[in-house]
Amino acid sequence: MLKKSQLARTAKKTNRTITFWLLVGSLSVFFPLYMTIMIAFKDPSQMSNSIAGILAFPKSWSFDNFQQAMAITDFWHTLSNSILITGATMIVAVIFHSLIGYAIGRSMQKRGYRLLYLYIISGMFVPFAIIMMPIVKQTAMLGIDNRFGVVLLYSIFYLPMNLMLYTGYLKNIPLSLEEAAAIDGASTFKTFWSVIFPLMKPMHATVAVLTALGTWNDVMLPLVLLSGTGQNTLPIAQLNFQSQFGTNYNLAFASYLLALIPMLIIYIIGQKQIIKGVVNGAIK
Amino acid sequence: MASISIRNLNKTYPDGVEVIDGLNLEIKDKEFIVLVGPSGCGKSTTLRMIAGLEDITGGELAIGDRVVNDVQPKDRDIAMVFQNYALYPHMTVYKNMAFGLELKKVPKDEIDQKIKEAAKVLDLEKYLNRKPKALSGGQRQRVALGRAMVRNPAVFLLDEPLSNLDAKLRTQMRTEISKLHRKLQTTFVYVTHDQTEAMTMGDRIVVLKDGKIQQVDTPENLYNKPANIFVAGFIGSPQMNFINSKVTQEGSKYFIKIDGCTLEIPAGKNKNDILSKYAGKEVVVGIRPEDFHLDQAFIEMAPKSLIDVKIDLTEMMGAEVYCYGKIDDEAIIFRAPSRFRPKEQEEIVVAIDVNKIHLFDKETTESIII
Amino acid sequence: MKDKLNSNRSRTFLAITIPIVILFFVFNTMAVIQGFGYSLTNFKGFGGYDFVGLRNYIDLFSDERIINSYIFTFGFAIICTILVNIISLVLALGLSSKIRAQGALRAIYFLPNILGGLVIGYVFNFFFTYILPGIGEAINSGALSNSLLASPKTAWFALVITVAWQAVALNTLIYISGLQTVPEDVYEAGAIDGAVGFKKFKNITFPLIMPFFTINMVLCMKNFLMVFDQVVSLTGGGPARSTESISFLIYSGGLSGGAFGYQSANAVIFFVVIVTISIFQLRFLNSKEEQL
After folding, report:
1. What is the pLDDT of residue C198?
2. What is the pTM of this model?
3. Mean pLDDT of C172-189
4. CA-CA distance, C69 to C252, in Å (whole number)?
5. Is the peptide bond before B73 cis (omega within 30 degrees of 0)?
6. Do B14 and C1 touch (CB under 8 A)?
7. Which CATH number fits domain C65-291: 1.10.150.120, 1.10.10.60, 3.40.50.150, 1.10.3720.10?
8. Do C20 and A36 touch (CB under 8 A)?
9. Among residues A265, A248, A259, which one has the least CA distance to residue A70?
10. Which chain A residues are within 8 Å of B97, Cβ to Cβ?
11. What is the complex's ipTM, to 2 decimals?
């Protein structure tokens, strides 16, 4: 009898049990971050050999590691490069990808455009590895093995996905709105800017989030294009840093934390938008 | 302030489908004309050609004195109300109405004045700062009308504007649009698939089928003098009954036979002795549901036009009853005052009002006598 | 909106499309073609080169390093896909049930997705090198007290954990949105028919979120086959080249290893493999969608 009543109670309290286990599980998310913070604030002398020593709170919270890491990685410059590249790509994606999404999406009754659409979409399956080497050659030849080139190439690599998202979304916007605009006297461009572009807002958010996440964290393209130009992005700076100072863990982790912080801040602020954007993009 | 003349209009899509075939129509200035027909008849296409949203494959379209075949929609001096309103969802009601005027570079205070005027007429003053999403169906409909009004167009084009509204609102908006037409004194071209809308609103009605005009006439004439079987069947609810029959001649008198009953066609209907051509030939007899009579007085008055009907089903509509039955295995429907509600499966005698019957040529489906 | 009257519109569309398509052709399609071109040469990445026909391709198939990297990458991708999907599904079910702080918990579990794979690799590198063996020693576990990264037999597993830690985030979220599409009344009808507990999941929930399962499979396979960042930062392809993914090998062999032409051939093969798998998966996806 006791057992039965216990069962009934646990059944009622299921949601608490699940909450508990999910909270426990979330430690696996926090632990690496906790570890990073703890190490970043210590100096090597505090890193006794035991893990307890490594994971304990530092005796004094020191920002020395950060200052040093910032100097070595040229943090502000690197950060501004990352922001510049990601921001520019995001803007190009939202403006131009929506524009071409509109042009192609509204011309799908024509066979040529349908083929063109499939052609561009198929670009999604091209692994970066195959175009990596020709891209290095091409950009060097054209003199765009620089930040501009990186933005240009990102804009091209994200075109297939964004085109698919925008043309898919365009199907929800009734054609009669454009006809009303035509009667109102709007040109095709004016119709796009005044009617279509504002209506694509939910998709702009998705595209912006996906494009930004992808470019911000990308390693490969800046690695092959920007190495040696002195214009690093945050991930590349970590890569270079690691090969030189990798054994000074306290310094290294301060640098990692610096690299993670911008995204963490943005996530804390725009967490709902980001989650929504990523899910929209994945499901569509 | 503008008539519309459509001369020999053609529309063929690139895939070779011909949707409009040699359409001729003169729409008078200030007229309320309704294009009606089943879906796919080309009524919307015609309207969209007038608007300039569809290309004209052949023929000529003039608004006023100006041929507008190659004129952009915005330069045609027209305004259009769309089926789903096509309001810009991200703009306020005010902005929706202002958009076209702003593009025309109309001064701001003039825009403001026009919108205020329209809002007053349409009772939208309270909603000018709302977005379409926050409005009811009827209010959205009025905004769409307002957007058309502020353009001050020579021609109003309305594409099934009431089809998204519920039945009650539709009746209400019908009268409002009619009122608006009277007030604005402008040409209205109105497309609908609903014959009730057409009948109640139009000065004249254009019945279309398969891209061809079947009849252009006033609502009364369309109902009383349908040009062919299609128009006769399309206009009126419940539908006109069609019964196959044969014309017989005895001297100068003509008869039709229905289920053993021989009806004499009143001589007054036989204009120019047209029936002589049909003597001995198969025809289609058309009888409106209200031209069957059950009351004793009528039956006694017309002993020669009585007919047996077996009732299958009756539908009580309130003031009257729709009776579904069979004459000689052909399904018919007639209306009777509700006090005469027959029982199901009952055989009853009804009188046909021979003065109201229609005869149609079986081959051409054209009307012979009306 | 058709034909010549709207030629203005068509012309505008064409004017938008053409330049963008040209750019796409130059930096995507032409690059692929060029990559194929290089694969037929013995180009080192610098200096002159000769045409060698299909020799690179023939050599690829007898190159143990290449074969190993394919075996590793596929094994890694498959194990990681299975692991990630199981964990994600469990998490999604948990996060979709009536729990406290649902929004916050979802946000927490999604966090790893937004962090860069490279830096996360470095952090986990430290974890596997110092923390985990430390724990192993503390609990006297011989297996754990050696770093997973030190042995070719276990390094792949460390990579799986690192990659999965991040990938679970997105997959969980996709499953959650899948679960939201299942109407409550279907569960109620199922409950009346006696579908509760695991039966409910097997007979009702899972079939209904099948499309999301497929999305996750496709996403996982594609991303895991192209794994690069974490390999660079966690293992560097080692130890003893045991964790060299295909992308990593193409990069390291082609750009810094002086085998540009040879690795181009590898990239072409890799491309064909990816396309084949993608087409296969899309077919599968479509047939599933038709069913529903």
Report:
1. 78
2. 0.82
3. 82
4. 12
5. no
6. no
7. 1.10.3720.10
8. no
9. A259
10. none
11. 0.80
